[in-house]
Write a structure and sequence with these properties.
GO terms for molecular function: fucose-1-phosphate guanylyltransferase activity; nucleotide binding. Keywords: Nucleotide-binding, Transferase. InterPro entries: Fucose-1-phosphate_GuaTrfase (IPR012120), GDP_fucose_pyrophosphorylase (IPR012887), Trimer_LpxA-like_sf (IPR011004). This protein is an alpha/beta fold. About 30% of the residues lie in helices and about 25% in strands. It contains 16 helices and 30 strands. The strands form seven sheets. The protein has an eight-stranded mixed sheet. A five-stranded mixed barrel has the order 7-10-8-9-11. It has a three-stranded antiparallel sheet with strand order 1-12-6. The two termini are about 45 Å apart.
């Protein structure tokens, strides 16, 4: 999880009057969480909350999973009521990116509501894709990733709704666009509000180091009239740069240099502070478009019909905005994962469509932006004494039944909606979610266990990732458990079988692993595209009749690698992670989580009755 931290402005008497940055952020965040908690399961008044909350999905399988989870949440009264919740799926065919998903969502809104959505405030959350760097979210979606807080526990959806809870009352009809895997925290004055009331686009901006700017969008802002910086500033943007180089940021005057009157303090993640005289830039997070701009984009989408290339909502929409926007960026494909033939042409059409539209910027000088990226980063922020853990009030034990697990001074384990036997052991730095662990189970340090059932004696090696999926194969219920190292790169791919030796599994050459498992290197070993061979598409995970058998078998795979001892997989039907997702049984996975939820709820009620 990468963190971008805004500064604490220091200048003369201003510094002495300031409450420390982390304190104000924590207090502001906790206030939003309390306010959202009070709305859960209750009807909201007109104008108090979003009219529509829409989540995008990559395909029909994902759409079904999202709809089922939303339905469960509403039945359990975990979300505010009186709001229209929707899942909008991308059309089948070529990948269209989050920009294409935005256009598709606009069409869905038009079909559902006609002219009625002219007056709506809409939250659009992009949650398509299969989260290859955080595979625990692959089956049921990034927006439904569990968080260690709340009762019942929050998932990313609830956190999004909580962090944006102050926006709708001060927003003109339009759409706020965000992604499922980032968190924005901010603090402003007690009587200040963020307003989205200007025509065109409005984006939030966070002060960040120049290095961070190379992996984000960067705003080139018009000069500030005042000599004093405030927590909340409304600025005009001359142009927007998408993942620029440091040289480009300087070339286009995006870099700010603190003067004597205004010095800024940055944090790099949760560690060392940068020098007070550091250069900085303003980076992006979420953006809003008014209804007129949304209708313009919709008309464009209706005109082109089918989209056959990936469009980036940030890079391709925002770079066209502001008086300084130029068409040169449309030919820059260095940040594109797959360059389709019509990409440049489509970008140029979008540029001409949006050119002249204003880009307003809400500068939040006391803010943090977190991006949830990899399993390792997830482990760090949930189990270490990180700033995010403090600001959101993450718990080491969230809605679970388990023994007292001692915490060390720097790390703790994190248990989320799980049932652990009194005699099981979980080492510091590990996460267990939606799982049952029996009496003779030992989980090593820095592990991630998800959706699993381990009842027999087992040792989970340190730095293991273990996640089980329910499958429907030929009409029958089955189970498969993906197991590998938390540092393994599932996206890394090679083009030929000869290069498979370059892949790594749990720090060992994948070729050696196949030898240990008695598997031969053939094209049949991989699913999907035969020129993109990876751990994601490798058919190495056994399909079993029971959840517990599935977990134990996959753990034996890991144990064989750790001890360099043979464990033949020849007798098993094997799936790749790609195939596991294609055959996933969403209903059974949700039912398993529901069963754990009910058992914990009953246990907690009994415990409450026993307290005198």
């Amino acid at each position: 999880m990468r963190a971008v931290l805004s500064g604490l402005w220091k200048g003369g008497a201003m510094a002495s009057a300031r409450v420390p940055l982390d304190v104000t952020l924590r207090e502001a965040t906790q206030r939003k969480l309390r306010r959202f908690s009070n709305l859960r399961g209750k009807p909201v008044a007109a104008g108090e909350f979003w009219d529509v909350v829409a989540i995008t999905a990559a395909d029909e399988k994902q759409e079904l999973a999202y709809r089922q989870q939303l339905s469960k949440k509403l039945k359990r009264k975990e979300l505010p009521l009186g709001v229209q919740y929707h899942v909008f799926v991308d059309p089948a065919g070529a990948k269209i990116g989050n920009g294409g998903s935005t256009l598709c969502a606009l069409r869905c809104l038009e079909k559902l509501y006609g002219d009625k959505w002219n007056s709506f405030t809409i939250l659009l959350i992009h949650s398509g894709g299969y989260s290859q760097r955080l595979p625990s979210a692959s089956a049921l979606g990034k927006i439904f990733t569990a968080l260690p807080l709340g009762n019942p526990i929050y998932q990313m959806l609830e956190l999004k709704l909580a962090m944006y809870i102050d926006f709708p009352p001060y927003m003109n009809p339009g759409i706020l666009v965000t992604c499922a895997d980032d968190i924005e925290l901010y603090s402003i004055g007690e009587f200040e509000y963020i307003k989205f009331d200007k025509p065109g686009f409005t984006a939030l901006a966070h002060p960040s180091s120049v290095k961070v700017g190379t992996t984000h969008g960067v705003f080139v802002l018009d000069p500030l009239n005042s000599l004093k910086h405030r927590d909340l500033e409304y600025r005009c943007c001359h142009r927007f740069l998408h993942k620029p180089s440091i040289e480009e940021m300087h070339q286009f005057n995006a870099v700010c240099r603190p003067g004597n009157f205004c010095q800024q303090e940055f944090a790099r993640g949760d560690t060392a502070y940068l020098q007070l005289d550091s250069e900085y830039v303003y980076t992006d997070s979420v953006f809003y478009m008014d209804h007129k701009s949304a209708k313009k984009l919709l008309a464009f989408y209706e005109e082109i019909g089918t989209l056959n290339c990936e469009i980036d909502a940030y890079g391709d929409f925002l770079q066209a905005l502001g008086p300084g926007a130029t068409i040169e960026y449309t030919k820059n494909t260095s940040n594109v994962t797959k360059e389709e033939s019509e990409l440049v042409h489509m970008r140029q059409r979008i540029f001409h469509l949006l050119k002249g539209t204003s880009l307003n910027v809400v500068v939040l000088n006391n803010s943090k932006f977190y991006h949830i990226g990899t399993t390792e980063e997830y482990l760090f922020h949930f189990t270490s004494e990180s700033s995010l853990k403090s600001e959101l009030g993450f718990q080491s034990i969230a809605f679970s039944i388990l023994p007292d697990i001692p915490e060390c001074s720097c790390k703790a384990s994190c248990i989320i909606q799980s049932i652990l036997d009194l005699r099981c052991s979980v080492a510091p730095g590990s996460i267990v979610e939606y799982s049952r662990l029996g009496p003779d189970v030992f989980v090593g340090e820095n592990c991630f266990i998800s959706n699993s059932y381990i009842i027999t004696k087992a040792v989970v090696p340190a730095y293991s990732f273990v996640c089980s999926l329910s499958l429907k194969v030929n009409g029958h219920l089955a189970y498969s458990t993906m197991a590998f190292g938390v540092q393994d790169n599932l996206k890394n791919n090679v083009k030929t079988l000869l290069d498979v030796k370059l892949l790594q599994f749990f720090g060992v050459s994948f070729l050696s692993c196949l030898d240990i498992w008695n598997l031969k290197i053939t094209e049949e070993l991989f699913s999907g595209n035969k020129t993109h061979l990876s751990l994601w598409t490798a058919r190495i995970f056994p399909v079993c009749c029971s959840l517990s058998e599935s977990v134990i078998t996959s753990l034996k795979m890991l144990d064989a690698i750790k001890n360099n001892s043979p464990f033949s997989l020849n007798s098993y039907k094997l799936f790749s992670i790609e195939e596991m997702l294609a055959y996933k049984d969403v209903e059974d996975m949700i039912a398993y989580r529901e069963q754990i939820f009910l058992e914990i709820s009953i246990n907690k009620k009994q415990s409450d009755l026993e307290i005198p």
